[in-house]
Design a protein that fits this description.
Shape: elongated
Largest sheet: 6 strands, mixed
Structural class: alpha/beta
Strand order of the largest sheet: 1-9-8-7-6-5
Number of strands: 9
Helix content: 25-40%
Distance between the termini: 75 Å
Order of helices and strands: EEHEEHHHHEEHEEEHH
Low-confidence stretches: 8-31, 237-242
Radius of gyration: 25 Å
């Protein structure tokens, strides 16, 4: 297992709630003079797949005055028939310059939504972010509420979906304890939400070591009681499955699972069952994380301690 320090923006307290400030929050004096005209021939760009790499590409677009035909991660880029894409190496200084410069054209909440859109892994996220930034640079007012624009609507919709996924992951992640006192959880979210939930789990479980691993994206978060790091498993270093073997679990873990299922069954009120409402608040795809939703090893038998009232006890003296 290799530890990789996470970029600073991964664990920053980015605002997730889709709230917008009035356009007066962006004084005219604080705005850029305007974006340069993109007069050169459009080009295809590739980058290393990181958010800093995308910010570097955005700087290059305006530096070269060449609008993008496409912006693709280098690992999955498809070359054109007549031209090779221009690859841009990530420049941390330029990325930071672009990130800070965005505050001249939008507030911090709108800027954070761009990062959330990047984490959404939408197929058109790079061009969508470029078009939003370009529109903000050329507009004479805040565009956050310009819902007549399709790109603004799409940015807002993806940010809301990210917020819901983050909230549900924070609520539905369940840990298992291993023999070496490590609490681990394996998740498979629709979006890349690990950077957004890191601060929550670091603060909430500050007194125990834990690992949250994203099965789909093959990386995780590891907290060692002092700091939270991004971790990746070396290819071929372990089994093909990312599931934890039962041999490394704490011997009491099955008992804890059984106790929780028993508690859940006893507090449940069958007469008030409403599966339609239940699935709306807790979608079916999250049930795989919950112990109470797993098959029972022991059939539940309700406690026979509820007796109907006798007629004598109902009399009024």
């Amino acid at each position: 297992m290799r530890l990789t320090p996470a970029p600073d923006h991964y664990f920053s307290s980015l605002p997730l709630k889709p709230l917008r400030r009035p356009s007066s929050a962006l004084p005219a004096a604080a705005r850029r003079p305007g974006a340069p005209a993109l007069t050169a021939a459009p080009r295809d760009y590739t980058y290393d797949g990181t958010f800093e790499g995308l910010l570097t590409v955005l700087f290059t677009v305006y530096d070269w005055r060449a609008a993008p035909n496409s912006i693709q991660p280098e690992a999955t880029a498809q070359a054109g028939l007549f031209a090779q894409p221009a690859h841009r190496e990530t420049d941390e200084a330029l990325a930071a310059r672009v990130w800070e410069g965005l505050l001249r054209t939008m507030d911090s909440e709108a800027r954070a939504r761009l990062y959330h859109v990047f984490l959404s892994e939408d197929a058109e996220r790079e061009l969508l972010i470029f078009r939003y930034v370009d529109l903000a640079l050329r507009a004479d007012r805040d565009i956050a509420e310009n819902y007549a624009n399709a790109d603004v609507r799409r940015i807002q919709r993806l940010a809301q979906q990210m917020f819901r996924e983050k909230h549900r992951m924070e609520a539905f992640v369940r840990f298992e304890k291993t023999t070496d006192e490590l609490f681990h959880a394996i998740i498979d979210p629709d979006f890349d939400v690990l950077p957004l939930i890191a601060a929550h789990f670091t603060k909430r479980y500050a007194d125990q070591r834990w690992l949250i691993y994203d099965r789909r994206r093959h990386y995780g978060l590891y907290y060692d009681l002092t700091r939270t790091d991004v971790v990746r498993f070396e290819p071929g270093a372990g089994a093909k499955s990312s599931d934890i073997s039962a041999t490394v679990l704490d011997e009491r873990e099955p008992l804890f699972k059984l106790l929780w299922q028993s508690y859940f069954d006893h507090v449940n009120i069958p007469e008030r069952k409403n599966l339609k409402l239940h699935r709306r608040h807790m979608p079916l795809r999250y049930w795989k994380y919950l112990s109470e939703k797993q098959p029972r090893e022991v059939r539940f038998e309700p406690i026979q301690n509820k007796r109907p009232p006798r007629e004598a006890t109902l009399r009024l003296e």
